[in-house]
Amino acid sequence: MKIRTGFVSNSSSSSFVIGIARVKDIKSVEELISKTNMGYSAHISIYDEHTNLSVESFDSNVVGLDGTNLVYGDTILKIDYIGDEGDCYFAEDDDCGDLNYDIGFDDLSTNIVDLIDGLTPYVDNFDYAYGAGRNG
After folding, report:
1. pTM of the model
2. What's the pLDDT tens digit per position in 81-124?
3. Helix, strand or coil, per DSSP, at residue 65
4. 45 lies in which domain range?
5. What residues contact 116, with CB distance under 8 A and at least 6 apart?
6. Degrees, nearest 5: CA angle 126-108-24
7. CA 135 – CA 73 distance, rounded (Å)
8. Does a structural domain hold residue 136?
9. CATH number for 101
10. Number of domains forming the structure of the chain
11. In a domain, 7, yes or no
12. Which residues are within 8 A (CB) of 89 and not within 5 positions of it... i.e. 6 or more apart?
């Protein structure tokens, strides 16, 4: 059996945003999600357990809510977004060689930046993280 130990050519890099929050104003949150066209990565659910909640990115970043600060029936927003920039976006030169994963918040898709910025007045206990890295 052959085992490849070097670079895998179909591996790629992506940006990500993960987040979790308790929703204070569900109507405003739903409106923001629909305006920013992010419905596929922003999920609203009802809290029904007395446990901590978390969201993990593909490179093991974790954000969470402490269950002791939640009550049964609270509305929870979870964000799990993977950007589609790919290797060339993070390349330091035109040949998509060395990758640079040190990105700023403004390097992300305008839709996800607008969503995160707009959510702040309508949620609390908002915990989110962003970055980039190998996703495959």
Report:
1. 0.77
2. 887 655 555 555 555 555 556 778 888 888 888 899 999 999 99
3. strand
4. 13-131
5. 17, 19, 79, 105, 128
6. 20
7. 34
8. no
9. 3.30.70
10. 1
11. no
12. 13, 15
